[in-house]
Design goal:
Helices cover about 40% and strands about 15% of the residues. It has one domain: NADP-dependent oxidoreductase domain (TIM Barrel). Helix 1 packs across helix 2 and helix 7 crosses helix 8. The protein has an 8-stranded parallel beta sheet. A two-stranded antiparallel ribbon has the order 1-2. Strand 6, helix 4 and strand 7 form a beta-alpha-beta unit. By secondary structure, the protein is an alpha/beta fold. The structure holds NADP nicotinamide-adenine-dinucleotide phosphate. NADP nicotinamide-adenine-dinucleotide phosphate binds next to helix 9. The site of NADP nicotinamide-adenine-dinucleotide phosphate has 26 residues, from helix 9.
């Protein structure tokens, strides 16, 4: 595996095995995204409420990386008209398609069937290559499918050794849905955990590198956010080692349903 490696979505399209999160990059977005692309990051995750779309658009326009080799993930919000919002967000990103457009979170009183049909139309019209969901339970995904919707390509949820769910992973595998891991570094809150630090030191790696590698070996797709250049470099330097089966099991066993954001969104 290397930074250009991909996972296959059920539609047959490839998606990079890891990406860059951009929540709270704010004014540094353009510079940080340019640096990330230079280091070999190929997937960028954004949302209108991160404020990072214009900076990402500028970084892609000014950087030396072809749009076709960059994988852009964007999201529609619960109050949006999904089709119109997709067009608007693409304008901000200065591009004419998203590689993946997600429903950011299910609306409070439905599974978002209306948003989903807007995204299906956006896909048909070429505004999005693939479509998916975020913060969805298995039941909410089933409700979308039962309503005649197509199978989401991705569910993007909070995911780390400290907070994950075998049942969700089994469900996604059974349905052919790729699980994207947000807040994969626990928003830096659990990086000094003793067990994690112990495993990291045995591999001569850092705690964030172990958290990212744990995802890569499970086939889940981490989206670590980093503003600082040395963090960007460290987080993509994860392709020269492998965690043993035994240590993978020890990392799995750290699960305490921990959520850096308050509660796991899919339980
Ligand atoms: N769909 C959703 O509802 C949803 C929700 C939350 C997040 N997300 C997405 O997932 C992305 C990642 O999640 P996140 O931003 O919540 O948190 P995260 O990636 O778990 O953690 C980011 C924090 O870790 C620090 N960090 C990064 N690399 C590090 C390293 N090597 N050593 C030490 N600290 C390091 C960063 O510091 P610096 O920035 O200072 O480098 C930042 O403070 C978001 O940016 C967003 O794109 C999606």
């Amino acid at each position: 595996m290397n930074p250009n490696a991909t996972v296959a979505l059920h539609t047959g399209h490839p998606m990079p095995v890891m990406g860059l999160g951009t929540w709270q990059l704010t004014k540094d977005t353009e510079e940080t995204v340019q640096a990330a692309l230079g280091l070999g990051y190929r997937m960028i995750d954004t949302s209108s409420d991160y404020g990072s779309q214009p900076g990402i658009g500028e970084a892609i326009k000014r950087g030396g990386t072809d749009r076709s080799s960059i994988y852009l993930v964007a999201k529609v919000e619960e109050m949006d008209d999904a089709y119109d919002a997709t067009r608007r967000y693409l304008d901000e990103l200065q591009t004419d398609y998203a590689d993946l457009m997600l429903i950011h979170r299910p609306p409070p009183t439905s599974a978002g069937e209306q948003l989903w049909s807007g995204l299906m139309r956006a896909k048909q019209d070429g505004l999005a290559r693939d479509i998916g969901v975020s913060n969805y339970t298995t039941g909410q995904i089933e409700a979308l499918i039962d309503a005649g919707g197509e199978m989401p390509a991705v569910n993007q949820i909070e995911w780390s050794p400290f907070g994950h769910s075998q049942a969700m992973l089994d469900y996604c595998r059974k349905r052919g849905i790729v699980l994207q891991a947000y807040s994969p570094l626990t928003r830096a809150r659990r990086l000094t955990d003793d067990a994690l630090a112990g495993i990291a030191s045995r591999y001569g790696k850092t705690a964030p590198q172990i958290l990212i590698r744990w995802n890569l070996q499970r086939g889940t797709v981490p989206l670590p956010k980093a503003n600082q250049k040395h963090h960007l470099e460290e987080n993509i330097d994860v392709f020269d080692f492998a965690i043993s089966d035994e240590d993978m099991a020890s990392l799995d066993a750290l699960n305490e349903r921990y959520s850096a954001l308050g509660s796991l969104p899919y339980e």
